[in-house]
Amino acid sequence: MVFLFSRIKGLLFLLLLSCFCFGQPAPPLLRFSIFLDPSNMVCLHWDHDEQEMMLFELQVHTTGWVAFGFSPHGELPGSDIVIGGVFPNGSVYFSVS
What we know:
The radius of gyration is 13 Å and the shape is globular. The chain has 1 helix and 6 strands, in the order αββββββ. The strands form 2 sheets. A 3-stranded antiparallel beta sheet has the order 1-2-3. It starts with a helix and ends with a strand. The model is unreliable at 1-22 (pLDDT under 50). The protein has one helix spanning 2-22; strands at residues 32-35, 42-48, 54-60, 65-70, 80-86, 92-96.
């Protein structure tokens, strides 16, 4: 389970990095999606391949930062979280815990 979450964190980092660095969302290559909030400001896209490798893309209308987490039990304790954003000077930051 830990190995899977490590791979997911790496994928999230790569997906989010491409969105922040180019200033546009990645092309819609993922087959599944759902809005995570009632105002349709947070959209999660995902897919999997034949080896059951999961890919995720999170598109968020934000004023500077976003956080996203995975948990085996749906709770904050023990979850894997990635936080990313853009500083006022335009530089990008990421933190994975």
